[in-house]
Specification:
CATH superfamily of one domain in chain B: P-loop containing nucleotide triphosphate hydrolases
Number of strands of chain B: 10
Family (chain B): Belongs to the ABC transporter superfamily.
InterPro entries (chain B): AAA+_ATPase, ABC_branched_ATPase_LivF/BraG, ABC_transporter-like_ATP-bd, ABC_transporter-like_CS, BCAA_Transport_ATP-bd_LivF, P-loop_NTPase
Largest interface: A-B, 35 and 38 residues
Strand content of chain A: under 5%
Structural class of chain B: alpha/beta
Oligomer: heterodimer
Strand order of the largest sheet of chain B: 6-7-8-3-9-10
Shape of chain A: globular
Helix content of chain A: 55-70%
Low-confidence stretches of chain B: none
Distance between the termini of chain A: 42 Å
Pfam families (chain B): ABC_tran
Largest sheet of chain A: 2 strands, antiparallel
CATH topology of one domain in chain B: Rossmann fold
Number of domains of chain A: 2
Structural class of chain A: mainly alpha
Order of helices and strands of chain B: EEEHEEHEHHHHEHEHEEHH
CATH class of one domain in chain B: Alpha Beta
Low-confidence stretches of chain A: 76-94, 429-444
Number of strands of chain A: 4
Largest sheet of chain B: 6 strands, mixed
Order of helices and strands of chain A: HEEHHHHHHEHHHHHEHHH
Strand content of chain B: 25-35%
Mean pLDDT of chain A: 83
Number of helices of chain B: 10
Shape of chain B: globular
Keywords (chain B): Amino-acid transport, ATP-binding, Nucleotide-binding, Transport
Distance between the termini of chain B: 31 Å
Helix content of chain B: 25-40%
Strand order of the largest sheet of chain A: 1-2
Number of helices of chain A: 15
GO molecular function, one term (chain B): branched-chain amino acid transmembrane transporter activity
Radius of gyration of chain A: 27 Å
């Protein structure tokens, strides 16, 4: 059955591609193949130029391109042939190509440091890996905030507070008790989650604009406290000398017992950078994994329902208090993890790193990516953070260009880059009816 | 019927929105297996009464009891877990979630033990929903959304179904279909239904008993047929709508 379908797909694709090639040939013969030109040199004599190579190229490109598209992208039993609909893929970004994009990016993320090392050498690649670490940090923050804003629909403008709590938890625990990164990482997450609940309680009844204002204030309060509690946090001087993470007890140091020594490598400071890259990569993937799992569980579905309609949620017997608090706590926890990573990467933190602008950037990543979309967050983080570095050459116009891009994205895709919401459940393969991808958004 | 204890009993309920009193001491009973309807004009307090049963807003005076248990001051989500389900006014389905996900939300409280069975039952009752199970709630027509709202409420296996204006904004033929489904649920499953309606003719024809509410108080009560034949009811609520 499967083989037969494949067979008929192959035949249909071939037929369709041949048709396309013939049409191309007919058109290209006249439009590309023959060229009237004015001969330079003696007088203005017209002459006909033949360009059969160009025609052949065009025909081959159309044939091959159409064939490949038919086989792998426009997965139709009857390959598109005539009619305008045949020229369009089946429905926006089909699940097949979306999956390919996802796995492509995943593979790219895994091999990135080595590919960069290979091409640019350890010195040249360092700044790019650093940038990739930064992007991944924001991907993780975006995914964390996505739980609160994207899934539960609670507009949080003070997300940076949890990032700060995570960073300071690690820095202070290391400073006062000498705890290592691996002990502090879970502690920072727990503390941030705890602060998430503390913030959650007073704002339970608030929604929309009011919630946004209170969370904004909360973010500022944390920063102001960090700034003014000089004896404890070092105030504006910040905390420095934050210990670096170890690789299962192996420090990234030169000489005996270090990482390079243990594995018999030549010491190179890039090892730590690559290690940090994979560390944040794994942390981000854990965030993603947990979110995706939760989305399919009752609590995740309750978050989404809460975003859609709080009154209906209550009418269905959902405890909205707990639902909101878990969203705040989980979002905060991932923010805290990212914060302690930030602290260990920088080795120095100060309240300056946790201004409102950070919250705004993270929120912009979530909104531009499409609320609730995990893939959208990745794309938006790459565009926002990577793009921000990329546009450095524009200097003072950078912000202008940047703002313009954001406006264009919002005009062009008002619901964010990835606006289609994938349903978290489908009954069976034979479920007929119109797939959710084909339907426009409801008025939500 | 009056010998048994009512499933839902409302006694002297007074509900306020801030300082404004919406309900002035309402008494109402719903017995097991009945369809009871509450009719009244816009702003009479019908929906307020239904929401008071659900605990948002809570009654300031009086009591609401269900199965003999006082639920007046319980939090809403707990009330909705005791066997009461509600299809709220304006349907309030989750627009960006699919039909199937909407139904799963309805069944969340009941757990997933009977989910498939309940889902089959819901699709039997409203075959249209089965066709549209992968479609987003917000893209359904008004009638389909109302069907979804009722089906979603039924997913929690309620003993008492509260329906707030299921005919709101729907074409007459859809209204008939929905009321037929309600009658069917009552007939075959013995489901108790408390129905708040403006469409007095349909509601009273369907219901075993009815109450008429004016300005936050019950002014008339009787069987559906009795109320339909009363001159005051005809004059006030059936003018032009009796077809």
């Amino acid at each position: 059955m499967q083989a037969r379908q494949r067979d008929s797909l192959l035949v249909a694709s071939l037929k369709d591609s041949l048709g396309g090639a013939v049409i191309t040939f007919a058109l290209a013969c006249v439009m590309v193949g023959l060229k009237v030109d004015v001969a330079s040199g003696r007088g203005a004599e017209l002459f006909l130029e033949h360009r059969w190579l160009a025609v052949a190229t065009a025909v081959i490109v159309v044939f091959a391109g159409r064939f490949l598209l038919n086989m792998f992208f426009w997965k139709r039993e009857d390959a598109p042939s005539i009619g305008i609909s045949g020229f369009l893929p089946k429905g926006g970004l089909g699940t097949g190509s979306a999956n390919m994009l996802k796995y492509g990016m995943l593979v790219l993320a895994v091999v990135l440091p080595f590919a960069l090392m290979f091409w640019l050498g350890s010195r040249g690649s360092r700044q790019y890996i650093d940038l990739a670490i930064l992007v991944l940090t924001y991907v993780m923050l975006g995914w964390g905030l996505n739980i609160v804003v994207g899934l539960a629909g609670l507009l949080d403008l003070g997300y940076v507070a949890f990032y700060a709590v995570g960073a300071y938890s690690y820095a202070l625990l290391a400073h006062y008790f000498g705890f290592s990164f691996w002990i502090c990482l879970p502690l920072a997450g727990i503390l941030a989650a705890f602060w998430g609940i503390i913030l959650g309680f007073p704002v339970l009844r608030l929604r929309g604009d009011y919630l946004a204002i209170v969370t904004l204030a909360f973010g500022e309060i944390i920063r102001v406290v960090l700034l003014n509690w000089y004896e404890f946090t070092g105030g504006p001087d910040g905390l420095s000398g934050i210990p670096r993470p170890s690789f299962f007890g192996l420090e990234f140091t030169r000489g005996e017992g270090g990482f390079a020594d243990f594995f018999g490598l030549k010491y190179n400071s890039i090892h730590r950078i690559i290690f940090l890259y994979y560390l944040i990569f794994i942390m981000a993937m854990v965030t993603n994994f947990v979110t995706m799992r939760l989305r399919r569980m009752p609590i995740g579905r309750a978050w989404e329902a809460l975003r859609e309609d709080e009154i209906a949620c209550r009418a269905l017997g959902i405890n909205t208090t707990n639902t909101k608090l878990t969203a705040f706590a989980l979002g905060a926890m991932f923010g805290g993890f990212a914060g302690s990573f930030f602290a260990t990467r920088q080795g120095f933190i100060s309240p300056e790193s946790f201004t409102f602008l950070e919250s705004a950037i993270i929120l912009a990543i979530v909104v531009l990516g499409g609320l609730g979309s995990q893939m959208g967050v990745v794309i938006a983080a790459v565009v926002m953070i990577g793009g921000f570095e990329f546009f450095r050459e524009f200097e003072e116009y950078r912000m202008l260009v940047f703002g313009l891009i954001m406006v264009v994205i919002m005009v062009w895709k008002p619901r964010g880059l990835v606006s289609s919401r994938t349903p978290s459940v489908a009954l069976s393969k034979n479920a007929k009816g119109i797939s959710a991808d084909l339907v426009q958004e409801g008025h939500g | 019927m009056s010998a048994q204890q009512p499933l839902l009993s409302i006694r002297g309920v007074q509900t306020f929105y801030g300082k404004i009193q919406a309900l002035h001491g309402v008494d109402l009973d719903v017995y097991e297996g009945e369809i009871v309807t509450l009719i009244g004009a816009n702003g009479a307090g019908k929906s307020t009464l239904m929401m008071t049963v659900c605990g948002t807003p809570q009654a300031r005076h009086g009591s609401v009891s269900y199965c003999g248990e006082d639920i007046t001051y319980k939090p809403t989500f707990e009330i909705m877990r005791t066997g009461i389900a509600q299809s709220p006014e304006g349907r309030r389905i989750f627009p960006r979630m699919t039909v199937l996900e909407n139904l799963m939300m309805g069944g969340m409280v009941a757990g997933n033990e009977h989910f498939e069975e309940d889902l089959r039952r819901a699709f039997e009752l409203f075959p249209r929903l089965k066709e549209r199970q992968q479609q987003r709630g917000g893209t359904l027509s008004g009638g389909e959304q109302q069907m979804l709202a009722i089906a979603r409420a039924l997913m929690s296996r309620p003993r008492l179904l509260l329906l707030d204006e299921p005919s709101l904004g729907l074409a007459p033929i859809i209204v008939s279909q929905i009321f037929e489904a309600i009658a069917e649920l009552n007939r075959t499953d013995g489901l108790t239904v408390f129905l708040v309606e403006q469409n007095a003719y349909h509601a009273l024809k369907l219901a075993h008993r009815g109450y008429v509410m004016v300005n936050g108080t019950i002014t008339m009560t009787g069987t559906g047929k009795e109320l339909l034949s009363r001159e005051e009811v005809k004059a006030a609520y059936l003018e032009g709508g009796a077809h």
